[in-house]
Amino acid sequence: MSEDQGKDIRFATRLLHTGHEIDPVHGAAAIPIYQTSTYHQDDVENPPLYDYARSGNPSRDALQGQVAALEGGTHALAFSSGMAAITASLMLFSAGDHLIACDDIYGGTYRALTQVFNRMGIETTFVDATDPDRIRAAIRPNTKGLILETPSNPTIRIIDLKAAAQIAREHGLISIVDNTFMTPYLQRPLELGIDVVVHSATKFLGGHSDVVAGLTVTKDEGLGKRLKFLQNATGGILGPQDCFLLQRGLKTLKVRLDASSAGAEKIAKWLRGREDIAHVYYPGLTDHPGHAVHKAQADGYGAVLSFDVGSGERAKRLASRVTLPIYAVSLGAVETILSYPRTMSHAAMPEPERHRRGITDGLLRLSVGLEDPDDLIADLEQGLR
Ligand SMILES: *Cc1c(COP(=O)(O)O)cnc(C)c1O
């Protein structure tokens, strides 16, 4: 199938037919793992398409082409981790630039901005970006970038991406959205006017807890070229074996997310109905703050929810009693993952700051996998009893 044909087909079909699924050399139905660092140059006068594998590799190109098509972009790059992709995107900025980021951004991004990029003269202001006016109010003459994530983690706050993209355009800022939680199946920020999408492909895109990877996607030619230059200059590429695993995982993205999201919705509603749960955070609950905004900009609610069991003691007891979910960091896999933000993702955050963000001692995060949701509910029920 040609790339032009690919634009008219639906997402489920596109996952399998973007024009990057068949090996162009031998027609293999899975793109081979080009496990090579360099390429023999037949023609001494003219350099070949591939000369060195940091700069290009057919396994990586196939994955990148597929991801660009899925996000509605034109230029995708595969990195060795989500943080490598985010770091390369932040390198678009220079000393003296000011950035605005949402205040509940992924912990690793927060750390990179406040402990690495700050040393290089790039200053970041963190704002409650659920209110577009607060983004606007934080803009300075030297503001160059806007870094957002929606839904956020773990309290599932929602940012209006169209409004944010509009503000960025008015002020000449590069807007960057971490789309890890939604994936292009459920949310396509480029279509809403965002400049760069970043992913931890370690999560839903890979989907099987067996690969660490990151992606950037843009549809702007200039930004695409700058990011490619930065990737080649700094070197955080994804290896061919991991490119293969990611393309393999992507084929089932829709069916996995459909099943996981349905499970998450069922569990969120079940938790909501219980007297002994202080709060449930899930964008699919109609009274969840930002529900209407999320519904307007996304095609579903995803597989991640958080809930507050009331106390740290109770959270620990539940975590030690459940038998089906693995108790771990990470999310977005075929198996259900239960995490405890207090000691995992947000352990480094001072307690008052953590509590201010609603990350209480009783808060647990659940990334729902492909188990039967009724078995997960029964397991949570016995754990809560
Ligand atoms: C995991 C994660 C990252 C970091 O990705 P790695 O692949 O672990 O480097 C970034 N953003 C979000 C939202 C994540 O969940």
Automatic annotation (TrEMBL):
Gene3D superfamilies per the UniProt record, alphabetical: Aspartate Aminotransferase, domain 1, Type I PLP-dependent aspartate aminotransferase-like (Major domain)
EC number: 4.4.1.13
Keywords associated with the record: Amino-acid biosynthesis, Aminotransferase, Lyase, Methionine biosynthesis, Pyridoxal phosphate, Transferase
UniProt xrefs under SUPFAM superfamilies: PLP-dependent transferases (SSF53383)
PROSITE patterns: CYS_MET_METAB_PP
GO molecular function: transaminase activity
Cofactor requirements of the protein: pyridoxal 5'-phosphate
Keyword match Ribonucleoprotein: no
Endpoints of the signal sequence: none
Main EC class the enzyme belongs to: lyase
Stated family: Belongs to the trans-sulfuration enzymes family.
Name of the protein in its database record: cysteine-S-conjugate beta-lyase
Species whose genome carries this gene: Tumebacillus lacus
Organism classification: Bacteria, Bacillati, Bacillota, Bacilli, Bacillales
